[in-house]
């Protein structure tokens, strides 16, 4: 592995990384940082949990001019949680580089954000909606921004932020450097790169299987009416330290949360209907292990890096391989092992096959404890039936004295009176003389 000193990172930033226990660069950092430092537009495809954040933050912070009191770099993220997470990393690094940074997202007091923007932060991290709001209010100036990062670009496209992102890009400097970082690269992201990038460098880190290898993936057959019972059974069996349960909709997440809470589990929900204060409080409790289970929609699947998540439950099977990868990527991070359990009913196997095709692997099918006990009981019953049959067969009496002498196939019957005629022989029955007549003419 390559150290950050060998990559040319200044000592002050290396000291900050060392204080957080980070000494060596990951593959994506080792390959992407030279491209970013050289000023190239780049498309970096790497899975979540591989260190993409430092791959773009470190070279960008090094290139920002502390003496210029204007916004010089912009990082756009699809969710508030991801923006907050990147901002925490940037805060310690920017302090060591003597530059200022600011995180902007919806749900915060916009007047306070205006006050902070008047101080001209040199690095801004934010979500598309709130950044566009400030742009329209003319409370943010992006004209001097020459370094732009779209983190989790595919998720921004999926959530419908394409027009907002394009508006923000057009407000930045004409000679900007644009960097796309994401776990997947669908066609919409490629179209965006073709329109706004100049000779982009494509970098794909083949780390998908490395990351997924740390996760034990299983599927469990279930029915909708027994899914909650099955979930509780597996939670009791697995005893996770921290677990995330993913549902398709906010209503489903709320329903599962209420059902688990009624059964005594330490559980809460995370979805878009919560205010920012509520979401922050829920995540804080979950990180402190005051909650054991977090029921969430896909809004929490991207960017959240919560230490100690040992299990991920796909209560509702994801619609595609991309969502599946991002969901289960919440566990098995930082060298730890994790387990991902996906519930599947009889009508969802086509969807499962598409997911397996996307991850290029087969997911092991696991029986629940109740199912295993049922199978073992059935096998024991069949074994007892076979043993009784063998015992009964051994004690069976012969049908006659001839059966012992002539073999079991004889069955004590005498078939000599029913002997078959030889093939091709003719009977003389039709040539017998009639009664009272002589055979001679």
From TrEMBL:
GO CC terms, sorted: cytosol; ribosome
Domain DEAD-box RNA helicase Q: 2-30
Gene3D superfamilies: P-loop containing nucleotide triphosphate hydrolases
Residue numbers covered by motif Q motif: 2-30
SMART domains (alphabetical): DEXDc, HELICc
Keyword field: ATP-binding, Helicase, Hydrolase, Nucleotide-binding
Annotated spans, Disordered: 363-441
One term of GO molecular function: RNA helicase activity
UniProt enzyme class: hydrolase
Enzyme Commission code: 3.6.4.13
Biased composition (Basic and acidic residues): 376-393
Biased composition (Basic residues): 394-411, 418-441
Pfam family name, one: DEAD
PROSITE patterns documented for this protein: DEAD_ATP_HELICASE (PS00039), HELICASE_ATP_BIND_1 (PS51192), HELICASE_CTER (PS51194), Q_MOTIF (PS51195)
Start and end residues of each Helicase ATP-binding domain: 33-203
UniProt xrefs under PANTHER family: ATP-DEPENDENT RNA HELICASE DEAD, DEAD-BOX ATP-DEPENDENT RNA HELICASE 47, MITOCHONDRIAL
The family this protein is said to belong to: Belongs to the DEAD box helicase family.
Protein's recorded name: RNA helicase
Species in which this protein is naturally found: Mitsuokella multacida DSM 20544
Phylogenetic lineage: Bacteria, Bacillati, Bacillota, Negativicutes, Selenomonadales
